[in-house]
């Protein structure tokens, strides 16, 4: 007798589901597990089991960006307190690339590599598989402190040169320009950021040393000449086939003590941009972007001052940061104040001889993971190359700057920054977008991206002092991985996220935008909450806390949102959370979310005109909120 086994198996499966339903329907108030197998056209559709490629670096250097055994996604099951939830449907900023500064000193060392030069440049800049694939590079306009000597493009023995008749980039034709041409041949799409350490000495006033190259500020009498200096520079590089994507008006404008150096206070940079640099670019058809600031994270007020000026703002693409002072979260502070402006991370050095374990963890955490999580489009390390004695550098320049590689004659060795950048740049391509993922402050830090080809990348770091086993959940699928203390891993996979809910972004700080396109506010924790803010500040940012039982709590400035028994306007003033501070996170078809309180009623923004409540029996537009919009 011919037996139809598939039909029998399907029948048994349906009966099993029916029995399960009957046994559970008496307790339907409890959360039910998601069904991970569905019947489609007589077959059972399961998770796709996508293959995940893994590369790992350990703190003891036993693994250095080393390919590991592939892992596979499977239908999500079980629990893990450390679950990184990746949601490719929630996107943030576009990524321009990861890379290094190519100083004049770096270029001269690269030019001395001889037969190894081509292999080196290919390794750093080629986007082919197995190469670092740096897509963004920062160069200097004139000398930096990592040049053999001080110079600008208009140095004269005495007097002034307001007409810029002595302007010339001839000093770059030996090393920098030839190396740049080879880089562009390898990666024609590379973006180049150019930054001056100083204006020509004759344009400055109140200088402090090194023949006028140290200290001082730009004399207002030469603002126009300096703007034309930028134009001539961009045009001269274009004549060599080198497109300058963006400039910053001044490297570290609050640092007077480097060599070279020049200060430019916030009001000075604002005036220079709005009255001279911006209009001069426009008048000459220059489309190069202008990026403000280019200094430490301890002064977010500096770029905010520039961007607050109504005349300067239209000329400015965004702001750039270093991290020798302050906290990487300053990038988010500026982003939230001016969300239509871009943010860039453009410099951080490692001091030689360095400590690989400590340097690797700090740079991975703050730069490769931290900067993109705080809206940066770019992450650049300082700088690409130095020799074994940290040369070349100017007198008074950096004497301990460890290159991403150390070049000694015709050979080179890879250092910490080579691996920090490569953990992202080899896998995250220009044009990728950051996507949603959550981190864990005491253990796993991570950031997630979606490439233009649809592939996903997660970079994860274990900041704990012991090995950590964690789950990466993607739609209805997941896998588990263990990282040693201090180790980092890059995970890459393809495929489309399943329809399984990714759940709330536990551990993330979010904003909530109402139906009126305004932000929900905790109102300083002293009055009833509203949905009336045009821009998000600190009280408009909420940490999503796992409250257990599938519910979340929302915390702003250390206080929790409360639905106030569902009888009064909601507040953000609780020191701890209980039942009335716990909410069920729902996701609408359009990607907006709802919050349902302990009374089974929905949080409402009350038309944006009254205090918010948790009293609505059903959810519509005023009970729905956009996350990080």
Number of helices: 10
Rg calculated over all Cα atoms: 28 Å
Strand content: 25-35%
Spatial strand order of the main sheet = 4-3-27-24-23-22-6-25-26-5
Percent range of helical residues = 10-25%
Distance between the termini: 63 Å
Instruction: Name the shape in a single word.
Output: globular
The chain-level mean pLDDT equals 91
Total number of strands = 40
User: Largest sheet at a glance?
Assistant: 10 strands, mixed
Show unreliable segments.
1-46
Structural class: alpha/beta
SSE layout and pairing:
Blueprint: H1 5-24, E1 38-40, E2 43-45, E3 51-57, E4 66-72, E5 74-75, E6 83-94, E7 97-101, H2 104-111, H3 117-125, E8 136-141, H4 176-186, E9 191-196, E10 204-209, E11 214-218, H5 223-239, E12 246-247, H6 266-283, E13 289-297, H7 301-308, E14 316-326, H8 330-337, E15 342-347, E16 350-351, H9 356-373, E17 376-381, E18 385-386, E19 401-402, E20 405-408, E21 411-414, H10 416-425, E22 433-436, E23 444-450, E24 456-462, E25 468-474, E26 477-483, E27 488-493, E28 509-510, E29 512-513, E30 519-521, E31 530-533, E32 542-548, E33 551-556, E34 559-562, E35 571-574, E36 584-587, E37 593-596, E38 602-604, E39 613-616, E40 626-627
Parallel strand pairs: 6-25, 7-8, 7-17, 8-9, 9-12, 12-13, 13-14, 14-15, 15-17, 18-20
Antiparallel strand pairs: 1-2, 3-4, 3-27, 5-26, 6-22, 10-11, 16-19, 20-21, 22-23, 23-24, 24-27, 25-26, 28-32, 29-40, 30-31, 32-33, 33-34, 34-35, 36-37, 38-39
Helix pairs in contact: 5-6, 6-7, 9-10
